[in-house]
Structure formats: structure tokens, C-alpha cells
Specification:
The chain has three helices and five strands. It has about 70 residues and is of the alpha+beta class. The protein has a domain at about 10-60. The strands form two sheets. Strands 1-3-2 form a three-stranded antiparallel beta sheet. α1 crosses α2 (about 25-30). The radius of gyration is 17 Å and the shape is elongated. The termini are far apart. The mean pLDDT is about 90.
Length: about 70
């Protein structure tokens, strides 16, 4: 198998697979301007860097546990 060059753009299907959501959900994120995409003909293409920025912006850190007046 030949190694592929690093791609700059992903399709909605590829983004959906990476986020474990449907392509419909990815298109909704694009339509609501939460995820930046470029429309080429009938397809949306998402830059890998834009997907990474989206993931960082939507990552939450868990709150520390509260047990008996002491925060761990």
C-alpha cells in the first residue's frame, strides 16, 4: 500500500467519521457557522486545521471532585 500525502481538506463524510457523528450533523455545524467549510460544486470541504480548531474550541475539562469540603 502506497503512503498518502497529508491532505489539507476533508469531506463531510470524513469529518463525520472523525467526530463519530452523522454527515447530517456535520452539515448542520457548517450551516450554523460553527465549523468553517468551503463549498466546491456540491460538496463541502473542511480544512484539517479548521477541524482541529473546532475540536479545541469545543473541548471541555471535567470539574474537580468535591468530597467533604476538600477539592481534589
Amino acid at each position: 500500500m502506497k503512503p498518502q500525502a497529508n491532505r489539507l481538506y476533508l469531506t463531510t463524510g470524513e469529518v463525520a467519521a472523525r467526530l463519530a457523528v452523522s454527515t447530517r450533523a456535520v452539515k448542520w455545524l457548517i450551516r450554523t457557522q460553527q465549523l468553517i467549510a468551503h463549498r466546491i460544486d456540491e460538496e463541502f470541504l473542511i480544512e484539517v486545521s479548521d477541524l482541529a480548531a473546532f475540536i479545541v474550541a469545543h473541548t471541555v475539562t471535567p470539574r474537580p471532585k468535591f468530597e467533604g469540603g476538600v477539592i481534589e
